[in-house]
Amino acid sequence: MSDVQASVLADVRNHIGYLTLNRPAGLNALTLEMVRLLKAQLEHWMQDQQVRTVLLSGAGDRAFCAGGDIRTLYDEYKQGSTEGIETFFSEEYALDQLIHAYPKPVIALMDRFVLGGGMGLAQGAGLRMVTERSRLGMPETGIGYFPDVGGSYFLPRLPGELGIYLGVTGVHIGPADALYAGLADVGLPSNKLPELTSHLDDLDWSRLSPEQAIRMLTFDDFGSADLKRLRPAIDRHFAHKDIPSIRQSLLDEQNPEWHGWAQATVKLMDSRSPIAMAVTLELLRRGRELSLADCFAMELHLDRQWFDKGDIVEGVRALLVDKDKNPRWNPASIDGLDPAEVAGFFKDFNHA
To answer: Does residue 282 lie in a domain region?
Structure first.
């Protein structure tokens, strides 16, 4: 493959291994081929003493990575095949786990959209950079799915109920909120990205590590974080026991400072898949007490059932295939949720 065709680009300069997701027309959404290329390159660099640090980025000017290539999985399922679905998720999760445990420093440049599977890649990195253009999120409930790629581990470990809120609603956040919530470590103005590249190419390793050099260029002044202002309300509403209780609590919000946000959040939740939100809530609360490996195992346990029993097939149809944006969720509303059905998805999951 030429570099133009390759879905993942790999380069080593000045002891830094550069891994670039290279499907810009598809917002660098992950295919199985990309997952395998990334994992193979990372495993190779583990043994290569010339590579001391790895930097992950996305090609093009639209996204770091907008998730997994869910449309391909949908097409396979509609053709009667489920084998490829489990293969994709199990290998994607193995890649994410490798990044979390990687023995060399990993830096993630989270410029522009970082959604779903992109978050799975970036959240395992030791240094996560955002720019003023960054938009982060786990938007899975909007397509009838649940936050995976380790989301059941990193979301519930955010302060208070922030992770529950982000996972259940699927909202996107900007750089100030990402830094406040702990989903990013440093900020970098996008106009300094060329300077960053030359800085690393000229880096004197006897004086600085790449992480130290990056921190000399970075700043965190992206304005005030909305999540900081909303935090008392988020912590109160999203601590309720189930999705109907959370929705009712939001409807009852009377404080003028939070009333508009609460009403908008109810409207957003009413557009999401009820079963996906309910399973997400249970998933994240269980994940709070589990190891990273057990969280991935729990997500895979759900994946094995979700295309048959969850809302993802209908969500992808409505939003990505037919694009009528009118998904027929099952149940159709939050009022129709059955706690026994939610619990059933977790039946027979045994963690270590």
So the answer is: yes
Q: Which domain holds residue 51?
A: 8-344
- Taking the C-alpha atoms of residue 89 and residue 73, their distance in angstroms, rounded to an integer, is 10
pTM, rounded to two decimals: 0.96
- CATH code assigned at 169: 3.90.226.10
What's the CA angle centered on 180, arms 177 and 185, to 5 degrees? 100
244-262 pLDDT, tens digit each: 999 999 999 999 999 999 9
Q: What is the pLDDT of residues 74-131, one digit of tens each?
A: 999 999 988 899 999 999 999 999 999 999 999 999 999 999 999 999 999 999 999 9
Taking the C-alpha atoms of residue 108 and residue 129, their distance in angstroms, rounded to an integer, is 6
Answer whether residue 350 is part of any domain.
no
Rounded Cα gap, residues 131 and 112, in angstroms: 7
Q: Compute CA distances 183 → 119, 163, 259, whole Å.
A: 9, 10, 26
Indicate the helix (H) or strand (E) that contains 71.
helix 70-78
CA distance 178 to 96: 20
- Stretches where the chain sits below pLDDT 70 are 1-4, 220, 352
What amino acid positions are annotated as catalytic residues? Answer: 68, 117, 140, 148
Q: Are strands 186-187 and 16-21 parallel, antiparallel or unpaired?
A: unpaired
Distances (CA, A) of 7 to 22, 34, 54, 111: 5, 6, 18, 18
